[in-house]
Input
Amino acid sequence: MDLGIRGKTALVTAASKGLGRGCAEALAAAGVDLVICARGEAALVKTASELSETYGVSVTPVVADITDATARARVLEAAGAVDILVTNAGGPPPGVWSDWDRDDFIRALDANMLTPIALMQATVPGMMERGWGRVVNITSASVRAPVDVLGLSNTARTGLTGFVAGTARQVAGKGVAINNLLPGIHATDRAVALDQGLADKTGLSPEEAKRQREATIPVQRYGTAAEFGATCAFLCSVHAGFIIGQNILADGGATNLTI
Ligand code: NAP
Output
């Protein structure tokens, strides 16, 4: 399927690895020019050159912590007038509900709620003026069903979900579609860290912890960044203009819901 977005420009944050990279790669494959960021320079520059060489699109890497306001301003300046925004940042650390103090919550809110909101506030007005735009926020399956050890994520991402629900419907009339894409467990560095967290807590080996987590997913495996990226690229396509303010689960059926 031709996604109809060849020649458009996208900003994908936190995109040197994992799900952000999967989204950047699927957009590059659709002919979209990219600005991508991450904190670590080596992996970011490597990803940028791999994507531009493979897909023949322009990929501008900006080394930046997207949760820092000054660094974010640099990213936005490099990106200029974007047609497509994919927001992503690292997830908060696991723990127990009684562990976290105000500073922990502020850090999680900054990374996983206020940063994507600031990115939308900076880019959506231009999309509305030009009459076309797409935003996909990478959130988490934890907004549909809380994950015990990810209370900071449960909390911050549900705040973002509320913001998107209200905002998406206010900007849709100007051709801008904002949606959230909710990963369940995917095979990325983050998943390996969470396997290790379960191993440390239970005494299982990391491989046993992985098998135990895979068994909770109806498809019996972790998702891939490529599958996730392809779904994201569809939501950024010309075909997705009637999908507004939705929370799309990509979790292999793991969240046990009727609707
Ligand atoms: P990952 O494999 O750890 O990759 C994270 C990417 O984001 C890397 O490129 C990393 O590069 C970059 N990054 C992290 N923090 C950043 C920051 N503050 N500023 C700029 N770049 C940053 O993570 P992932 O698995 O792709 O997960 C992406 C998001 O989805 C996370 O929020 C995660 O919590 C959420 N999620 C993941 C899963 C899963 O199973 N994978 C499930 C549910 C939700 P640098 O470290 O160099 O900055």
The pocket of NAP is lined by residues 14-20, 37-40, 43, 65-67, 88-91, 138, 140, 183, 185-186, 188-191 (CB under 6 Å).
